Amino acid sequence: MRYYLVAGEASGDLHASNLMKAISVKDNKAEFRFFGGDMMQSVGGTLVKHYKQLAYMGIWPVLTHLRTILNGAKICFDDISEWKPDAVILVDYPGFNLSIAKRVKHQLNIPVYYYISPKLWAWKSYRIKNIKRDVDKLFSILPFEIDYFAKHNYAIDYVGNPCVDAVSEYKAAQDKGNSAAEDKSKVLALLAGSRKQEISRNLPVMLESIKGIDGIKPILAAAPGISPDFYAEYIRNSNVEIVYGKTYDVLNRAYAAMVTSGTATLETALFKVPQIVCYKMPLGWIVSKLRPFFIKVKYISLVNLIADRELVPELVADGMNVKSIRKYLLPLLSDTAERQAQLDGYEKMSETLGGAGASERAATKIFESLNK
Fold first, then answer.
1. What is 2-160+357-370's CATH number, 3.40.640.10, 3.30.2350.10, 3.30.360.10, 3.40.50.2000?
2. pLDDT at residue 185 tops 60
3. Residue extent(s) of CATH 3.40.50.2000 domains in the chain
4. Labelling 213: which of 45, 68, 219, 265 has CA 20 to 30 A away?
5. Is 223 in contact with 155 (CB distance < 8 Å)?
6. Per-residue pLDDT averaged across 192-211, rounded?
7. What mean pLDDT is predicted for residues 163-182?
8. CATH of domain 166-353
């Protein structure tokens, strides 16, 4: 069968590529065509447009590149129309993908599957009507989403979380004889975000907060696509080691971590590394006051959302400062009750997520649905 996939950023490229591999196991005649990236291209099929040509985040970047984005959506729909796939599989990237879903579902009558749900529970909950109208099946990677969508009378399938797969595969591939355990008590992992704006806000505060703390080895896990010159401005007068393309290696060695919110918080938890979540924002005090009106959830980190409690400290907006970071970080740098509480919580959170195999479960459900 023919499968057309649309992924709009690096994480979507990764998860879509794993889904493609799993589909190929189920369907040995599978053909792929896609908007995506290098990882999807390595699996096979035809790359129509690279996500880097469309990956704009934030209000101003989106507005200034709106013509490019709209033209990309037209190219995508026209290409789907011409290729006539048996299924369209959308991966995250809701602004773009929901517009594609609407046109594909109602103009082409092709089954639409959505892998990795838009975060409607956090913001833009009005999009639920688009999902119910335009998506045949939605595959969730967050267990608490089942109840959310049930309240809106829309049944979804929880297939597990692909981060569990990725971390499990990494750990299985490691040579246990070279675990670098002698360094583990020293490494403090710094994950300061994936975009320049995030890094420029978060990294300077992170670096300032660890000055004078003895017995730690700070290692910055650089984000893909960010040049060394950009980081050099911030780390030239520090003792921070910077590592490119090896975030899992850093987390595997880390004793504790400071993490900007996102998927990285979940990955850090799966590596059993105690952490504090840091997310500085401009006009932080205003953001803190207005947050309840725009953000519909109690927490910003996936770890706390899955645990349904504040398992890891969240220092957000004006709450992220040197004083607050040191208050919550220092207890994690030795054998304390605070450190053990996070480790115990990670175990329960992992049970909630379930085992590896998200891609395989999603592929099975898609294949079975198409063959009914």
1. 3.40.50.2000
2. no
3. 2-160+357-370, 166-353
4. 265
5. no
6. 92
7. 74
8. 3.40.50.2000
